[in-house]
From TrEMBL:
Transmembrane segments: none annotated. SUPFAM superfamilies: ACT-like, Alanine racemase C-terminal domain-like, Carbamate kinase-like, PLP-binding barrel. GO terms for molecular function: aspartate kinase activity; diaminopimelate decarboxylase activity. This is aspartate kinase. Pfam families: AA_kinase (PF00696), Orn_Arg_deC_N (PF02784). Keywords: Amino-acid biosynthesis, ATP-binding, Decarboxylase, Kinase, Lyase, Nucleotide-binding, Pyridoxal phosphate, Transferase. Its cofactor is pyridoxal 5'-phosphate. Its EC number is 2.7.2.4. Pathway: Amino-acid biosynthesis; L-threonine biosynthesis; L-threonine from L-aspartate: step 1/5; Amino-acid biosynthesis; L-methionine biosynthesis via de novo pathway; L-homoserine from L-aspartate: step 1/3; Amino-acid biosynthesis; L-lysine biosynthesis via DAP pathway; (S)-tetrahydrodipicolinate from L-aspartate: step 1/4. The keyword Transferase applies.
């Protein structure tokens, strides 16, 4: 018998002519492969939702809703160039009858709902099959109820809820079925059947639960003992994180069943979680593909091969999680407490996901897909539990899981990622004994930042260090249609290597700046359309040539001290006061007077100046820096928002600030927030802006919303840059919502980090195998970021650029301090005394933070000529 391949197409993959053309292409290539394609498809996207609304009597006018569904399918038939469609007419008639019958007194109502829902897929078949036939395929349309028979849940002891689920979320077997194989072997060269649908032993039509076309296809693949199941949708597979939130997430090419199961059950929607159990024991592979990028290799789900070492594959996230903490009332070591508590939850029909226990309390997480929070159900559960324990409910949580093999082997690397929890509470941690997943439950509003950070630290690194690993291209590239393997991004210092080596030979060590990079970074931000002003945060690098370059592109300056203002006055003799914004923090009164005397606008970030020095501000225009209540950034010490930060006026003081300003007779013309740095999530600034715009409603004179800086720069090789188009899109929408507000930004690092490198020469090499040290002429007195923040800087041996790495080394400086380490465990070629070593991304917070510690002069600055 010819082998079968079951190919499932989702709701977006059947909605128009281009999609059907892709289906035809896939069918053709499977025929070429010599297998028999069995196509299982969904209803056109949105149709099941509408049918559900009709069945639930949630549409005001069912007739009108039906007419809309009919129009949608007739329009598709026209788009596909079909003539009369008798099958479609018959299916529409069947649907109309089912809708009319929904209030009949006979039969359980779940069965009538299922009959209505199942029509969506039938309507699609009725249009798609004639089109495929018109393309010359020998297609047999087989109704799914002939192929899949459901298995009602336990007959005895089945609850009413179980019986309802037997119609709306039915289960089937996936054992090989000779009858079904024989039936389809006889059919035409291509078989098409609808997903989502099966037959109950009582003869009625049942559905397999929302998203159940995947499941139908998996059951069928099992019954047919198919060579594989292919699932085609608008996403090419599973990613290292949800790509809509983390655009740098990478496609995963290979997963084993257990890992894929973790990903589907902890949040990803690309594959229904019931598919895997149906195929796992049969070892039938699942291939995921995208109809939008048909040539892209997607995700293959296969039996496990790699064992042993720790391997992280993805970070997944589930929202709407509710935690219930149950504390026993002093009955220590009480027998049966858990059993009683779980009984209550089970009786409410809720399922428990995670559990953690201590001597006196138990915390359980409930998966609240159905708006549990507002439901009477939760109240009832709490009520019943309260009879024997103290109950606390924590709503709106997210469960964030690290998924992979031997996750416990990664625990030691979590340190930096977990720093974020100093600011935000973790409610629960659970490590699955299968060692496949480590889950943190946090407040939902923190989840974005936690996921972003864990992903940046753990997965981007994993993908980088394993070029042959299971990881595919990042989502940003797939979306942009760039699918070849990522080429090494050419950096300016590759091109100017000879000059750099000459500079290092002459000076021993030096910061070297490329002004073209400064200008091009400025222009990138100035090109983000909704941004009206780019104020360069000159604390990042105050070199006169850099200041000149910034000004020449049209940028202004953000200063934090009188010294910085004086530097500008030295460099430019025609600078206007409004090209500067002064943002001091805990500065003495004299600093404010210094700026005000010059007419420079300033930002206040505390009430103290207004309370204690009212005369200074009478009649003045000021901006207020508010603390958004949370912070983010690449390290704890650069988080500048949130409870533990010294910056900004907290929310609860805003009213007082307004009253003070009014009393003094000052005017608030702008609001500002700067909540961290090194941020690569493009939506961050839109969120900040929205928050400020809301606050601005209380300040009639506000016209400026300054969303601060923090624009991240990829510090590791392979990390994609901040997606500025996405940033622009978000800010454009923000502007559209608040057209009267001007948007300002204050980038520092973004402008200069990549424009500068630190060069040093190798002084000594120590150690053979094991721990090897490479010493440089430059150390923490030149670049303190690694010691201070644990910052990562790419380090290369410029003299031996391109030579194969020999082994990991510790790159250290000449300062008498054990923290004088620039890089840990870095791949490095065989090196010699005198080689020139380059430390990348040293243009920001390099020389400005350097010192004469040990009475060693820090590296001097050199600007490259054009
Ligand atoms: N049409 C069904 C739904 O939307 C099944 C599926 O598409 O997987 O839930
Ligand atoms: Mg789906």
């Amino acid at each position: 018998m010819q082998p079968f391949v079951v190919i499932k197409f989702g709701g977006t993959s059947v909605s128009g002519l281009p999609q059907w053309e892709s289906i035809a292409t896939v069918i053709r290539s499977r025929l070429d492969e010599g297998v028999k394609p069995v196509v299982v498809h969904s209803a056109i996207r949105g149709v099941t939702d509408r049918l559900q609304a009709i069945a639930d009597d949630e549409t005001p006018d069912a007739e009108a809703a039906l007419a809309e569904i009919a129009d949608l399918h007739r329009a598709l038939a026209v788009e596909l160039g079909l003539g009369p469609t008798p099958d479609l007419d018959a299916e529409l008639e069947r649907l109309a009858r089912a809708v009319r019958a929904r209030h009949d007194a006979t039969g359980p109502s779940a069965a009538r709902t299922a009959e209505i829902l199942a029509c969506g897929e039938r309507l699609t078949s009725a249009v798609g099959v004639p089109w495929l036939q018109a393309q010359g395929f020998d297609v047999t349309r087989v109704d799914a109820t002939e192929l899949l028979h459901s298995r009602p849940r336990a007959q005895a002891g089945a609850t009413a809820l179980d019986r309802e689920r037997d119609y709306l979320s039915a289960l089937c077997d996936s054992e090989a079925d000779e009858a079904v194989r024989a039936r389809l072997a006889e059919a035409g060269e291509v078989v098409v059947t609808q997903g989502f649908t099966a037959r109950h032993p009582d003869g009625s039509t049942v559905v397999l639960g929302r998203g159940g076309s995947d499941t139908a296809a998996a059951y069928l693949a099992g019954k047919l003992d198919a060579r594989r199941l292919e699932v085609w949708s608008d996403v090419p597979g599973m990613f290292t994180a949800d790509p809509r939130r983390i655009p740098s997430a990478r496609l995963i090419h290979r997963l084993d069943y257990a890992e894929a199961q973790e990903i589907t059950t902890t949040g990803s929607r690309v594959l229904h979680p019931r598919c895997i159990p149906a195929l796992r024991s049969r070892r039938i592979p699942i291939h995921l593909h995208s109809t939008l990028h048909p040539h892209l290799r997607g995700t293959e789900v296969l039996p496990a091969t790699e064992r042993g070492h720790a391997h992280l594959k993805a970070i997944s996230r589930k929202d709407d999680v509710v935690l219930i903490t149950m504390e026993t009332l002093g009955m220590w070591q009480e027998v049966g407490f858990l059993a009683r508590a779980f009984q209550v939850v089970a009786e409410a029909g809720l399922s428990i996901d995670l559990v953690s226990t201590s001597e006196t309390s138990v915390t359980a997480s409930l998966d609240a897909s159905a708006n549990l929070l507002d439901s009477a159900l939760l109240a009832e559960v709490v009520d019943r539990l309260s009879a024997f324990c103290r109950v606390e409910v924590i709503a709106s949580c997210s469960a964030i899981s690290l998924v992979g093999r031997n996750v416990r082997g990664l625990l030691h690397r979590l340190g930096p990622a977990l720093e974020i929890f100093e600011e935000h509470r973790i409610h629960m941690v659970s490590l699955a004994s299968s060692d496949l997943n480590l889950t943190f439950v946090v407040d939902e509003e923190q989840a974005d930042r936690v996921v972003e950070r864990l992903h940046a630290i753990l997965l981007i690194e994993a993908a980088r260090t394993e070029p042959d690993g299971p990881f595919g291209p990042p989502w940003t590239r797939i979306r942009a249609g760039i699918l070849e393997p990522e080429e090494q991004r050419e950096r300016w210092w590759h091109r100017r290597r000879d000059e750099l080596i000459a500079i290092a030979a002459e000076k021993g060590g030096a910061f070297v700046y490329d002004l073209d990079t400064v200008a091009s970074q400025m222009r990138k931000l100035l090109a983000v359309e909704p941004v009206s002003r780019v104020m360069y945060a000159m604390k990042a690098n105050a070199h006169p040539d850099i200041l000149r370059t910034v000004r020449a592109t049209g940028g202004g300056f953000e200063c934090v001290s009188p010294g910085e203002i004086e530097r500008l006055e030295e460099v430019f003799d025609d600078l206007r006061a409004d090209e500067i914004i002064f943002t001091p923090n805990f500065a003495p009164r004299a600093d404010y007077a210094f700026a005000l005397d010059r007419g420079i606008p300033l930002t206040l970030d505390a009430l103290h100046p207004l309370q204690q020095w009212p005369d200074l501000f009478a009649g003045r225009e000021v901006l207020l820096r508010v603390d958004p209540g949370w912070g983010s950034g690449h390290h704890e010490k650069v988080v500048t928002g949130g409870r533990h930060s010294k910056f900004g006026i907290p929310h609860f003081e805003i009213d007082e600030a307004r009253a003070l300003v009014e009393r003094i007779g000052a005017r608030v013309i702008g609001l500002h927030t700067h909540s961290g740095s090194g941020i690569l999530d493009p939506d961050h600034w839109t969120r900040v802006g929205e928050r400020l715009a809301e606050l601005a409603e209380a300040f009639p004179e506000v016209r400026i919303v300054n969303v601060g800086g923090g624009f991240g720069v990829p510090d590791r090789e392979g990390l994609p840059p901040l997606p500025l188009e996405a940033l622009g899109d978000g800010l454009t929408e923000l502007r559209a919502r608040h057209p009267h507000l001007e948007l300002w930004v204050e980038p520092g690092r973004f402008v200069v980090s990549e424009a500068g490198v630190l060069l040093g020469r190798i002084t000594q090499i120590k150690g053979k195998k094991g721990l090897r040290y490479v010493g440089l002429t430059v150390g923490m007195n030149s670049l303190i970021r690694p010691a201070l923040y644990g910052a990562y800087h790419q380090i290369v041996n410029l003299t031996r650029l391109g030579e194969p790495p020999e082994g990991p080394v510790q790159v250290v400086g000449p300062i008498c301090e054990s923290g004088d380490r620039l890089g840990t465990d870095r791949p490095f070629p065989e090196s010699r005394e005198g080689d020139v070593v380059l430390i990348a991304n040293a243009g920001a917070y390099g020389r400005v933070m350097s010192s004469e510690y040990n009475l060693r002069a820090p590296a001097e600055e050199v600007v490259l000529g054009a």
